[in-house]
Design a protein that fits this description.
single chain; alpha+beta; Alpha-Beta Plaits; 2 helices; hydrolase activity; Copper chaperone CopZ; Heavy-metal-associated_CS
């Protein structure tokens, strides 16, 4: 079965340093189906590539909002 890859940009509010970026990336990478995470401090966003048969955009947003001190939503 072929995986369904999705690439989505998420706005992430509240980050102020490289540690913030690493914290968000670590949290997102704990989810199943995550293929690539690129969080950009200056742009206040993250571009995430994932298998949509294993995880949804809403689950990614909830993970960021619950496990970090930042607020995420679809960009």
């Amino acid at each position: 079965m072929e995986e369904c890859k999705m690439k989505q940009t998420f706005a992430i509010e509240g980050m102020s340093c490289a540690h913030c970026v690493a914290h968000v990336e670590k949290a997102v990478n704990e989810l199943p189906g995550i293929k690539k995470v690129a969080v950009h401090l200056k742009k206040n966003n993250g571009v995430i590539k994932f298998d949509e048969t294993q995880v949804t955009s809403d689950q990614i947003i909830e993970k960021i909002n619950t496990d970090t001190n930042y607020h995420a939503h679809l960009a």
